[in-house]
Amino acid sequence: MTTVEDRKRSAFGRVARRLVVDTTPLRESPDYRRLWTGHAVAIIGTQMTRVAVPYQVYVLTDSTLMVGLVSLAQLVPLLVCSLFGGSIADAVDRRKLLIITECLLTAVVGGLALTALLDSPPIWAIFALTAASAGLSALESPTRSASVASLVRKEILPSAFALNQSLTQVGAIVGPAVGGVVIAFLGLSATYGLNVATLIIAITVVSRMRPMPPAHAVTRPGIKSIVEGLTYLKSKPAVMGCFLADLNAMFFGMPRALFPAIALDQLNGDAVTVGLLAAAPGIGALIGALTSGWVTTVKRQGRAVIVSIIVWGLAIAAFGLSHWLWLSMFFLMLGGVADVISAVFRQTVLQLSVPDHLRGRLSATHIGVVTGGPLLGDARAGATASATSPAFAMVSGGVICAAVMVLLGWRLTALRRWTLADAATDPPPTAKSNATT
Q1: Each residue of 139-173: pLDDT tens digit?
Q2: Superfamily classification of domain 25-422
């Protein structure tokens, strides 16, 4: 007979399962586990480099504007490669494409390590290598994202994206924190060198995945393929709403370009302080991801995106007002929690609104927004801070982000009402002459 204590333990177990991140995708799919593991290793080194580049540019130039411009220099290759990368990801073996792009990324980061050994590193070389890295990442990221939906069941897809966010945020915490320490004690070249090592490990793990050729007939890569994807996007207002919501959050609310100035000037810190600020959003996001077992119980995923981004904007505005490191990190962590919940549901809406033969192209468009938005946001923040102050740039950006999201939430009816019932279905496999295998 069930006792009161048994019922209490059972209830506690149900609550715990709803809070702790669901690891079912890792248990069920060996290939998803390999994809996840490879990215888990690579993201640590990548985040170290993302701290090292703006720090190096700020130290060399003493200019927040130059830090913003190094981000802006990545925008064109990122957007161009995103568009063409998505059409390629839909038409070729995605596993092979992942391996090729990660090999090229290894060479580019190796170039950054070599320039850091110079007494006076040329700024143009840092700009060029960082731009090349952005372009290659725009090929790799949509390929990886588009692969997930074909590796796990639809019902556990939110859990898979929560797991992705968990490892991304671990990297966002460990990478910047370790990067700051490595920069301070070993130098920039060693920081870039560690990124090279993590990429080599990731390539080795991903190479063990099974081949992932196109499951359906697809249009050959090129302009026609890109137009086909963009045309489909126009028919999905909920996905368009996710893109607009994320672009708003990153353009007005992204604080990354101002971390060096705020850490060194407003908080009177050093390179380690820069690393701590850069890690703080990841700490919050990791907390949000690791307690995301409840995401599968949310019925209106689109509405969750809207609320999360409003919280993000308000947290960033509060960060801009702080003059104490612990309080600054608290608000950045709060923003990180909101951001990761938004990311989980945005990915769910995107991947389940699009059939598999279009996921590469739509994922590429999404990556272009997700990574292009912060680059524009860095440029906006750097320019605003140069004309006013870093604090004003942060506070005004966060407030505008929250206000715009309230307006978008009211206008974007399709996103506000989106549920799993709106998921797309894949067409049956066909064998058209224009298919690429």
Answers
A1: 887 788 778 877 887 777 778 877 887 777 677 67
A2: MFS general substrate transporter like domains (1.20.1250.20)
